[in-house]
Design goal:
alpha+beta; FAD/NAD(P)-binding domain; D-Amino Acid Oxidase, Chain A, domain 2; 3 domains; six-stranded mixed sheet; 18 helices; 21 strands; globular
Length: about 575
């Protein structure tokens, strides 16, 4: 059986763009969640588009979020009822459309007082700038009652409940002794955020094969009515003449617009930093719940179990330069100090940190507002065409992970209006990627895993593949079973052939693409020098590169891990590359 052609094929799409620079209706700039979702929606309507990203799919803020699908409970304090209603409904939809990557997450709110915060909550609801230092039980109860009511449409999660301090401590013995009660509501955790982002792009290419998606391709200039793109891997320059541009550059929107000859500042981003902790004591203390808690100064923090790790976040600090988003020492100290406010006797320190990450939220520019009160709603800024630039630019501002489908729908409808076309397909109930035909019960999942073992996949790996690929695990499993394979030494749940699959079928062009976005090896804090060398050796062979390329990739990745993620693996020497898998291997 011949190997199936890849859905994502960078070389194919580069050649297509070079040969037909005026054939694409829309250029979507930015492969984050909003750009990818818009690309998919446009493809479903029959619009031929090209998606480009200067780095990789989901390389910006979309891979630096708290990894939750949530309605935004705290936005109620700002009076954003419409946003919360939309977000809770989109959360419910996403749990149905991507069941392979979303799971219910109980979120606990520890309460230290009964009536505190009522007056502040009223003032903030009506748009007055008023500090909220402590949320009492009655304020929390009212908020959760409203939150559940707004999320009633398409409900898939349980309603909130409130436990007394005595009840809560039977399950959560490490709670702060001053806690008066615990309120628990439900949102959802996204287990594979980057892969969900990638699957939207794959779905677009399946829906409209004449479209194109190219990573590591940057917008650099606007010349003679053409947009100039540069391949950051080869240095090659290409041009495109679209009918319309969607700027989904996130925190880089203003820079992209500047390259297109558009002046002005639309974005006033804020940085959110997170820590990934290997702390069994804290993991046990959480009791399987997330905790949303006040830092003592009105800012909410979140902590939850993520596999055998713990995710702790986040900060909310103004930052104008998205390239400078690093979880610094002050933020690290703040987050480690914040967790002691609810678990004072659990020993959590810098020695437990395995990974840090930070991203910039593409929020609308605001001059004097507190960062926490800047709206997370989404909006489109239209820049009209000019004689020199004969196409409009739609800049996507704000938005949040949970509402990407709704934002893409609004954007696509705006594009269709510009092009004089009508919508053909609704995306409300459309499954995403490996969520299509995903089994609804354990028996169905067991059957899916058994189908993989029938292909020759080791039973111990079948469950892992289903967890990481959903129903698309069948495609991956066939590829893995088609030839000799070997588990990675320090990450046996992943294999050498799986790394080859990411390169050959998922447009992974660098080591960073592989460890940050095609897998969660970096996020899970499992990278070692030996593991990176092993992955680099496979990637070198699959990409047809040499030892010099491998050495440069390892050095660049080691520097990035140390500077941005607090992971110091020391100098990494290249390893001999294995033989490349034959193209005739079945998949």
């Amino acid at each position: 059986m011949a190997e199936q052609p890849p859905i994502l094929d960078r070389a194919r799409d580069l050649a297509r763009l070079a040969a037909e620079p005026a054939a694409f209706d829309v250029l979507v700039i930015g492969g984050g969640i909003n750009g990818a979702a818009t690309f998919r929606d446009l493809a479903l309507q029959g619009v031929r588009a090209v998606l480009v990203d200067a780095l990789d799919i989901a390389a910006g803020a979309s891979s630096a979020s708290t990894r939750m699908a949530h309605g935004g409970l705290r936005y109620l304090e700002n009076g954003e009822l419409r946003l919360v209603a939309e977000a809770t409904f989109e959360r419910n939809r996403l749990m149905r459309n991507a069941p392979h990557y979303l799971c219910p997450l109980p979120v606990a709110i520890p309460v230290f007082a009964r009536f505190s915060g009522a007056l502040a909550a009223v003032f903030r609801f009506f748009g007055r700038d008023w500090p909220l230092r402590l949320r009492g039980l009655e304020v929390v109860r009212l908020g959760l009652r409203t939150y559940d009511w707004l999320g009633r449409k398409g409900r898939v999660l349980p309603r909130y409940r409130i436990e007394s301090a005595a009840e809560a401590r039977r399950h959560l013995p490490d709670l702060h002794p001053a806690v008066r009660g615990v309120a628990t509501y439900y949102d959802a955790r996204i287990t594979q955020a980057e892969r969900l982002n990638l699957e939207l792009v794959e779905d677009a290419l399946l829906a409209k094969p004449a479209s194109a998606a190219i990573n590591h391709l940057a917008v650099t200039a606007f010349e003679g009515g053409e947009i100039i793109l540069q391949d950051r891997l080869s240095g090659r320059r290409l041009a495109i003449r679209p009918k319309l541009v969607v700027n989904a550059g996130g925190a880089w929107i203003d820079r992209v617009n500047a390259a297109l000859g558009i002046e002005g500042a639309l974005i006033g981003g804020t940085k959110g930093a997170h820590l990934v902790l290997d702390c069994p004591a804290l993991h046990r203390a959480l009791g399987g719940r997330a905790f949303s808690f006040d830092d003592g100064a009105g800012r909410l923090c979140i902590v939850y179990p993520m596999g055998d790790r713990v995710l702790l976040g986040s900060t909310d600090i103004r930052l104008d330069d998205p390239d400078a988003a690093v979880c610094d020492a002050a933020e690290t100290a703040y987050l480690l100090g914040a967790i002691r406010l609810i678990f004072p006797l659990v020993d959590v320190g810098p020695e437990h940190i395995r990974f840090r990450f930070s991203g910039v939220r593409p929020l609308p520019r605001a001059t004097r507002q507190e960062t926490g009160t800047i709206s997370r709603d989404h909006a489109i800024e239209r820049t009209p065409p000019t004689p020199e630039r004969p196409w409009p630019v739609l800049s996507l501002i704000g938005g949040k992970w949970t509402t990407f489908r709704a934002f893409a729908e609004v954007t696509t409808d705006a594009v269709l209006a510009e092009l004089g076309r009508k919508r053909k397909v609704a995306t409300h109930d459309l499954p995403i990627g490996g969520g299509r035909d995903y089994p609804a019960d354990p028996a169905g999942r067991t059957a899916l895993e058994a189908s993989l073992t029938g292909l020759g996949v080791d039973p111990s790996r079948a469950a892992s593949l289903v967890e990481r690929f959903g129903t698309r695990a069948s495609r991956v499993g066939a590829f893995l079973a088609a030839g000799p394979d070997q588990p990675l030494g320090d990450a046996p749940e992943t294999s050498r052939r799986e790394i080859a699959f990411h390169v050959r079928h998922e447009m992974a062009m660098t080591l960073g693409d592989l460890v940050f976005r095609r897998t969660t090896l970096a996020l899970d804090g499992r990278l070692t020098a030996g593991l990176l060398q092993e992955i680099a050796a496979v990637a070198t062979a699959e990409l047809g590169q040499d030892s010099a390329w491998q050495a440069a990739e390892l050095a660049a990745l080691a520097a990035l891990l140390k500077e941005r993620h607090g992971v110091d693996l020391g100098p990494l020497a290249p390893a001999p590359a294995p033989a490349k898998l034959a193209r005739g291997d079945a998949a």
